[in-house]
Amino acid sequence: MYTQLRETADELAGVLWREHTVYRERGGGVVIRGDHVRRWISLGPTGGKDQALLRAGRLLDGGTTAPARTEVVVDLKAGTAELAAVCRRMLAEVAAVAEPAPAQARRAGRTSEPGKPGKEGKPGRAARAARPGRPRRERHTSLGSFVVLLCVAGVLGAWLYSLFGGGYGY
Q: Whose CB among 56, 72, 98, 112 lies 3.0–4.6 Å from 90's, allowing a Cys bridge?
């Protein structure tokens, strides 16, 4: 099954992207990476003869793969053109999900004071960290941590007292 998946993936990769990498994944499937488009496609065994599980997802900033956004079972007997059409549809769905919503794009460019240009949002930053108007809380040592420190200091003091100060027994 792996050789059939590998051959199909090689043909499919040549049709989809000029620049691609094809490699074997842990589960016995084959992955096609298109680093220049930041997408990946995986062909994996399904247990059925001449069928494969086709999954598509995007590549993250560090080069790692995000979980699959779409999955579909395909017939490997179909031609390369039919498989490529299914892959293109799945990649379009992945690209549509990866696009920011219009409300999020407007929120990133909002200014805190009128007349001043807004700061550009850093990519990959969480939405809650970019909320304007809320002061950032600094972390402080909690009361529980002080209690633990006092208990440790008390035990250490009692041990030192028993060694040096209270063991004369008059």
A: 56
